[in-house]
Amino acid sequence: MPLMPARQPHFITLTAAAAAPAAEIAAGLLAPAARLSPKFLYDALGSALFQAITELPEYYPTRTEAAIFQAHGEAIAAALPPGLAGGTLVDLGAGDSAKAARLFPLLRPARYLAIDISADFLRRSLQALQQQFPAIEMTGVAMDFAQRLALPDGLVDAPALLFYPGSSIGNFAPDEALRLLREAHALSRGGALLIGADLCKPAAVLHAAYDDALGVTAAFNLNLLRHLNVLAGSDFDVRDWRHQARWDEPASRIEMHLLARRDVAVRWPGGGRDFAAGEGIHTENSYKWEAAAFEALLRDAGWRHVRRWTDARGWFGVFLALA
């Protein structure tokens, strides 16, 4: 009897046209204070470097969140409305899908929809995951939902559990986070949201987490320049730049910047900019939330019956909210 072919994941690409990233990059670099979206951190190498960051001793969010799921996973699964466990799991910013995969035994999804901006990284990750879980129907969607979270009709056709772990919601300013959470509410089709949020803590802990001794976060940030060269045809030389993490207490956010080591002229097709020594490019924000304020944000976005689980130090929160 011939062997049945192994199930393969489906892939859909919803990324913008090639010219759009170049235009967005040029506009950001030419702003009075140059700034770029953190989405440009995540090419294939950037995604791999971020996975390495999560293994660092200074980077507490990943292991703290994992410990919360380890301690409270059964309670979280039990709090889901009937039908969501065993249904569709939508993973926002899936990365290597490892966080979702650890929850498969509890959530028992029949269908897994993984969304990530890095198409190549997503494809490799999902192909490996499909071999581990051949019974689960898997679909990868390469898209940038930073501007708008919306999927083609039919991809989510029943109440779904949306999963957004790892504190990535912190990359969005509060008004942007509210918009994204409202779009997630609509996408869930009456389902639920399971989301991680990094909570307020001492500034020294944050500085160490975003500027580690080994320099992996610096490499992650600097790799953005290599990615810009690919997307926009620019001529950044990473040796001309250095990584900086800084804490903005009034805004309750840690910021990542790239600072010019010397006077630098950067050019790209149709434009360019001269950077003075010490001048920077703002590459990422990571907002830190008070737990009660984040619950209020979820309610403002239309979510209800919000529940929260935290670690003993109160450094990280996992929130379950119903649509």
Give structural attributes.
323 residues, alpha/beta, Rossmann fold, 8-stranded mixed beta sheet, 3-stranded antiparallel beta sheet, 9 helices, globular
Describe this structure in words.
The protein is an alpha/beta fold and 323 residues long. It has a domain of 186 residues: 3-Layer(aba) Sandwich (Rossmann fold). The chain is 35% helix and 25% strand. The strands form 3 sheets. It has an 8-stranded mixed β-sheet with strand order 1-4-3-2-5-6-13-12, with helices on both faces. The protein has 9 helices and 13 strands. The mean pLDDT is 94. It is globular.
Ordered list of secondary-structure elements with their pairings:
Layout: E1 10-13, H1 19-30, H2 44-53, H3 60-78, E2 88-92, H4 98-107, E3 111-116, H5 119-132, E4 137-142, E5 160-164, H6 174-187, E6 192-198, H7 203-210, H8 216-232, E7 241-248, E8 253-260, E9 264-268, E10 271-275, E11 280-287, H9 291-300, E12 304-310, E13 316-322
Write a compact overview of the structure shown.
With 323 residues, the protein is an alpha/beta fold. The protein is 35% helix and 25% strand. The protein has helices at residues 19-30, 44-53, 60-78, 98-107, 119-132, 174-187, 203-210, 216-232, 291-300, and strands at 10-13, 88-92, 111-116, 137-142, 160-164, 192-198, 241-248, 253-260, 264-268, 271-275, 280-287, 304-310, 316-322.
Structural class: alpha/beta
Indicate the CATH class of one domain: Alpha Beta
Mean of all residue-level pLDDT scores = 94
C-alpha end-to-end distance: 48 Å
**What is the CATH topology descriptor of one domain?**
Rossmann fold
The helix count comes to 9
CATH H-level superfamily title of one domain: Vaccinia Virus protein VP39
Rg (C-alpha, Å): 20 Å
- Number-wise, the strands total 13
Helix percent band: 25-40%
| CATH-derived architecture of one domain | 3-Layer(aba) Sandwich
Question: Judging from the principal axes of the Cα atoms, what is the shape?
Answer: globular
Strand percent estimate: 25-35%
What strand line-up does the widest sheet have?
1-4-3-2-5-6-13-12
Low-pLDDT sequence parts: none
Largest beta sheet, briefly?
8 strands, mixed
Topology pattern, helix = H, strand = E: EHHHEHEHEEHEHHEEEEEHEE
